[in-house]
Amino acid sequence: MRDPGTQPQLTGMADDLTEALRAHAFGMPEAWEDHPWGESVAKVGKKVFVFFGVTDEADPPRITVKLPHSNDEALAMPFTVPAGYGLDRGKWVTVTPPADAPLDLLLGWIEESYRAVAPRQLVARLDAGAASPA
Q: What are 107-132's pLDDT values in tens digits?
């Protein structure tokens, strides 16, 4: 996980935020992109860990992530709602972050979602990578 002491702010365009979120998701061990239902998702194995939705330049960035540990905290924020289609029962949250949302918070949620669905050996690889000197 990222150092909680650093909280950079995204001040660029929505495209920059989307690009940063996608790069982080697809940088996870064995993560790959799929397009079920016509939308972009990040998967590990056969399991989705981030829904990016249908990309439309007119819409603000939006992600849906599984947050088994920080669900209540996340839902207390004004830019989150429980995910639809019954996913909320599995602690899925839809996030429409404002431009000033802390990037580390959003990236942390993507990582939490990955950890919730990824096989243990891939989570171990993630941890090993985080422990490696930069």
A: 999 999 999 999 999 999 999 886 65
Which pLDDT band holds residue 45 (cuts at 50, 70, 90)? very high
Which tokens is 9 given?
Answer: 């702010």
User: CA angle at residue 67 from 66 to 71, to 5 degrees?
Assistant: 135
pTM: 0.83
Best CA proximity match to 65, nearest among 100, 132, 73: 73
User: Would you tell me how many other CB atoms lie within 10 Å of the CB of residue 130?
Assistant: 11
Domain 14-122 of CATH type 2.60.40.10: no
Helix (H/G/I), strand (E/B), else coil: 25: helix
Structure tokens at 93: 């949250």
Taking the CB of residue 133, how many other CB atoms lie within 10 A of it?
Answer: 3
